[in-house]
Amino acid sequence: xxxxxxxxxxxxxxxxxxxxxxxxxxxxxxxxxxxxxxxxxxxxxxxxxxxxxxxxxxxxxxxxxxxxxxxxxxxxxxxxxxxxxxxxxxxxxxxxxxxxxxxxxxxxxxxxxxxxxxxxxxxxxxxxxxxxxxxxxxxxxxxxxxxxxxxxxxxxxxxxxxxxxxxxxxxxxxxxxxxxxxxxxxxxxxxxxxxxxxxxxxxxxxxxxxxxxxxxxxxxxxxxxxxxxxxxxxxxxxxxxxxx
Length: 244
What we know:
Elements: H1 8-15, H2 17-31, H3 38-61, H4 66-69, H5 78-89, H6 101-116, H7 122-133, H8 135-149, H9 171-186, H10 191-212, H11 218-243
Helix pairs in contact: 2-10, 3-5, 3-6, 6-10, 7-9, 7-10
């Protein structure tokens, strides 16, 4: 199948396949054992908060243009981020909040693209929201599993999970709408614009990786969990030799 016959959403996936795999490995390697810690989860929310807020404000600024058409009902997350951050960091978290350099660099890139052509931001809207609707849900479930393993007292709590909870809107319906919308928009874009959106798709993951690398606290938590696993394994092995 020639490239122009491939649906645009699949082109977006194909062009980022390699960097997407690298990004997945980074997330799993950095966060896999630390997800159950509220401090790490809150750090993850904090680094992406400004990015999602910027994109949502940009979609609103260009509501009558192609970028604005990407605003699928039920997908906006700014309010959800703020509720979760208030839960984890306290209601006054904004008073001491400072945008970290990697996030500022990310926002600067988005601002530059918006000035040049708002359509270029479609790459970020597509990948970030599809990522939240897919990978974000996986991380949410892994976090629950880790809490079960720890017999967490807050196991059944739904507080602090607003970002990954889309209420009455199903994950499937939102994803389908985003896919159909980006494909409809692409039908009316010139090749230069489509090529730029595909190019920027790679930057989505490069910039994501930069801000993920700033998440603090994962190292210490990883060491603690590895020590716990090591102790459990030692007890099991000693018990085996003692009671056999």
